[in-house]
Amino acid sequence: MSRLLAVLRHRLMWPAAVLVLLIAVNVVVTPTFLSVELRDGNLYGSLIDILRQAAPLALIGIGMTLVIATGGIDLSVGSVAAISGAVACLWISKLDNQDSVGGVLVAIALAMVLSVACGLWNGVLVSVVGIQPIIATLILMVAGRGVAQLITEGQIITIASDPYKVIGSGYASLIPFSVLMAAIAVAIAVVLTRLTALGLMIESIGGNPTASRLSGILAGRFTIIVYAATGLCAGIAGLIYTSSVNSADGSGVGNLIELDAILAVVIGGTALTGGRFSLAGTVLGAVIIETIDTSIVALGVPSNANLLFKAVVVVALFLAQSPEFRSRLAIRRRPGPPASKEPAQPDAKVEVPA
Amino acid sequence: MDSATPILTMTGIAKRFAGVVALDDVDFRLFPGEVHALLGENGAGKSTLIKVLTGVYGTDAGEIRLGGEPVRFTGPLQARAAGISTVYQEVNLCPNLSVAENIYIGREPRRFGRIRWAEMRRRAAELLRKLHLDLDVTAPLARYSLAVQQMVAIARAVDVEAKVIILDEPTSSLDASEVAELFRVVRQLKAAGVAILFVSHFLDQVYEIADRMTVLRNGRRIGEYPTAELPQVRLVSLMIGKELATLEALDDKPKQTGEAAQPLVEAHALGRKGAVEPFDLTIHQGEVVGLAGLLGAGRTEVARLLFGADRADTGRVDVAGSHVNLRGPRTAMSHRIAFCSENRRAEGVIEDLTVRENIVLALQATRGWARRIPQRRQDELVDRYVKALNIRPADPDLPVRNLSGGNQQKVLLARWLITEPRLLIVDEPTRGIDVGAKAEIQKLIAELSDGGMAVLFISAELEEVLRLSHTIVVLRDRRVVEQLPNGDDVDSDRVMRTIASGNGGTS
Predict the structure, then answer these.
(1) Chain B residues with CB inside 8 Å of A217's CB?
(2) Is B22 near chain A, with CB under 8 Å?
(3) Is A343 touching B (CB cutoff 8 A)?
(4) Is the model's pLDDT at B114 over the cut of 80?
(5) Which residues are CB-contacts of B301 (< 8 A; sequence separation ≥ 6)?
(6) What confidence tier does A9 reach under pLDDT thresholds 50, 70, 90?
(7) Which residues of chain A neighbour B17 with C-beta distances below 8 Å?
(8) Does the distance separating the beta carbons of B58 and A343 come in below 8 Å?
């Protein structure tokens, strides 16, 4: 057990170290960065802002992690978020009383049903029709954006609904409501995958689909479930996005979020080839990405260098995570006796003689 | 031969992994123009020694000299440039590239930086012709069987101006005629003065081709012997470090099951186009049915049909007297049929997962994802089978990829045994694993059948089939040609004649 913990610590240590470093830099530049204050029974501060921004990304990241673990990928999450937000806002905008809780709940339910349907569509294309995941989800990525714009009729739907506003901007005793939702979603995902055998099944399908089939695992069923769950996560994220700005923009909501979500998954240590996955890692990855975005503003990075800055941090992070790169660096620093010159072996590949 | 100078000497080689000693003060030498077999059980250090030699691993101590000069390679590419080529057990080629590309990848003939494709194809064709292989060099490698792919890998090694060629289990996926073909090439190379390091678990082949052998056990060198002076029985006891009690215990032919045994699985005119012609087959409780035949004769195809891994397009299967529609592996499993695939890595273990996860996988799949096997029950089952099958290292939390082939095979067997099958189908369970593990697995199968389990046993090694089976089914050209009860009148010659002629023996 202690060994398992050691491995876990090792795997998430470098992303965590980078996060700490980012925060440290921010503290130097903005000494009040770490301060969190209590106002009207709610918490405010830069850290809370980061968590709030990371919430929808973490939500999508959960789904993306599971999809990637099965050996797939889902490019359509941004479009699904846009559809979900557009439907919810459209429904609310047609209400006589936009502050009616019942009406808002119906709008949310409608958005969720549609999001799950989108996920099912992806799942069926991948597992029943047999299209490669990147192509299958590309269809909905492109078409879904169009559907969202059809729903909003190319306009931005603006609403004024207090109950709906709670999702993105509200507080649930101390912490932001969106952070609470993301936390609950993570908890549910962890319980479902680790306390049942769902996680094992997913890792097995991603690790070796043929062997999994021959072991009696009905891969198609799990694949569909996982894509449907990702659709649901993206749908919730769409509610958060539209709720925080009180409007739905078919072309803007969740634009390029799929790339950030994939990035969060990779930072968290889940390999794009499928198999082993880490939900905690993805959450950490989402927080790191949002911290970088916040740092860009705080450090006054010129806006045309934003993406470059982000890229440099991410590349540095990946290099720090690579055992191969680290040991190569160590060798270069002190050219020891010939025995230490052996080529860098990733720790995981150490062969244990029987 | 000892008067000659060795082309390669390794002295006092030591290598440890995370505190575990893999090699301890190992000496090894190789003369030009000899075939030298490196022998030992799985985990004895053969692979490690080869990887140290080719620079995949560094050494903790010791010296390597090639042609008298001390060398230290930092990778296989460097070793190859110095004249040491390796052909690995698992084909290490790119199936989506053409045959010619596979042979010349990384050293394509070039002019002004441009690859000269025509020249490359011409040279590849010529090289293969020398090895008597008739292949279309422009076809993707995946079009050819595993055996042919292996030959391409060897062709690739041969073509590099090699002083030393390492053949690591090159024959494990070849059938008898292909092995003969390979050995012809090996002798050709030997006559040209190339030193050949040969690793194989097929002792008959070692005795056929090797001039000398070095035996390793637990990371130490036991000794170096001329082949002619070391009888096979003595060799095996040197390898496993004990006398052959387990092997000898199985020497008797299996007792026939009583007439009273109930038919468990009956196939009636079961067949699939392009895989195997319709056949009838009955497997009784407690019976071991052995499938004999050449590689590609349809042995695996029969197994896959009975497990539902492939759908049959004719015929029917009855299990315990009632008709069953085998829609897929899951249906077969619900009738307690288990199938250990011959392709351990591609269709068997899931390398990323731990030993524990691999073992519980099939049982968990039948229970469904919602009903996770309780941790305590998992530990209990896994511990029991790790002990019973002697899986080493006995750490259930280790990823399966870190285990040797024989131990991965045992993990697979454990996966199916905990599902308590009535019929266990094992396809080549002893291929590419060492004598000790082989004897253990054979013994296990005999015990399981004594306990009432029916076993369908597939092996390319006729001796093994004869030793274990109550009934022998002979396949030839995707057709069942004969089914005969094992008895004193049945020996390998008798079965071999059927395989060769396709006729039902003497009758």
Answers:
(1) 361, 365
(2) yes
(3) yes
(4) yes
(5) B272, B275, B276, B310, B478
(6) low
(7) 350-353
(8) yes
CATH homologous superfamily of B244-252+261-336+421-507 = P-loop containing nucleotide triphosphate hydrolases (3.40.50.300)
For residue B2, give every residue at least 6 positions away whose Cβ sits within 8 Å of its Cβ, in sequence order, or none.
none
Question: Is A336's pLDDT higher than 50?
Answer: no
Instruction: Indicate the average pLDDT of chain B.
Output: 85
Using CA atoms, how far apart are residues B415 and B401, in angstroms rounded to an integer?
16
DSSP state of A348: G
Lowest mean pLDDT among A255-264, B25-34, B151-160, B445-454: B151-160
Residues of chain A with Cβ-Cβ distance to B371 below 8 Å are 196-197
* Domains (range + CATH), chain A: 52-320 (1.10.3470)
Q: Look up residue A22 and give its two tokens.
A: 């980012």
- Is the Cβ–Cβ distance between B277 and B301 less than 8 Å? no
Strands (E) across A145-204 are located at 156-158, 171-172, 175-176
- Cα–Cα dist A304/B285, whole Å: 75
Q: Pick the residue with more confidence: B288 or A298?
A: B288
In chain B, residues under CATH classification 3.40.50.300 are: 8-243, 244-252+261-336+421-507
Residue in B closest to A210 by C-alpha: B347
- Predicted confidence (pLDDT) at residue B251 exceeds the cutoff of 60: no
B76 or B432, greater pLDDT: B76
- On chain B, the residues whose CB falls within 8 A of the CB of A350 are 17-18, 402
Helix H or strand E encompassing B495: helix B492-501
CA distance B190 to B209: 10
Query: Which chain A residues have a beta carbon less than 8 Å from that of B45?
Result: 353
pTM given for the model: 0.75
Read off the pLDDT of residues A126-137 as tens digits, 9 standing for 90 and up: 999 999 999 999
Distance from CA of B123 to the nearest CA of A (A): 34
* CATH hierarchy code of domain B8-243: 3.40.50.300
CB of A91 less than 8 A from some CB of B: no
User: With 80 as the cut, is the pLDDT of residue A171 above it?
Assistant: yes
pLDDT given for residue A337 in this prediction: 44
**How far apart are the CA of A328 and the nearest CA of chain B, in angstroms?**
13
- Beta strand segments in B19-150, E: 20-30, 35-39, 61-66, 69-71, 84-87, 110-111, 114-115
Compute the distance between CA of residue B493 and CA of residue B472 in angstroms, rounded to an integer. Answer: 13
Q: B392, A354: Cβ pair inside 8 Å?
A: yes
